[in-house]
Design brief:
By secondary structure, the protein is of the alpha/beta class. It is 33% helix and 33% strand.
């Protein structure tokens, strides 16, 4: 069985939104990493990873999220993640739930623009 991951990037206000649908695992994590890192060349920047369409994420995918978080912070940016229930559970198991800006809906992630109340 071949893992499938569909990625698309849009701009919503001052946010770059990368939406993923499918599974993020050993087979698809490199494409996910390359796609997301290709979008964060602006300083300061605001990135939203919409992972609401992700049904499974393994430690390789979680490693990509940690890498992206570090790269965004170096660029003085913000990272917000819209997490499906399964993604949130994986992040909780990796003890990252409190370290990341997690949201249940895209609208919530987009509503946290700089200067707006959380």
């Amino acid at each position: 069985m071949t893992a499938r991951l569909d990625l698309r990037t849009t701009t919503e206000g001052s946010s770059i939104v990368v939406a993923a649908e499918g599974d993020i695992d050993l087979a698809t994590a490199p494409a996910f990493r390359d796609h997301v890192l290709g979008e964060i060349d602006v300083e300061p920047m605001r990135l939203v990873l919409d992972l609401s369409g992700v049904g499974f994420i393994d430690s390789t995918g979680i490693g990509v999220i940690v890498l992206v978080r570090r790269k965004v912070r170096v660029r003085r940016g913000e990272l917000h993640i819209v997490a499906s229930r399964r993604v949130r559970a994986a992040l909780r198991l990796a003890a990252l739930e409190q370290a990341l800006n997690l949201h249940e809906r895209l609208a919530d992630a987009l509503g946290h623009e700089a200067g707006e109340p959380a």
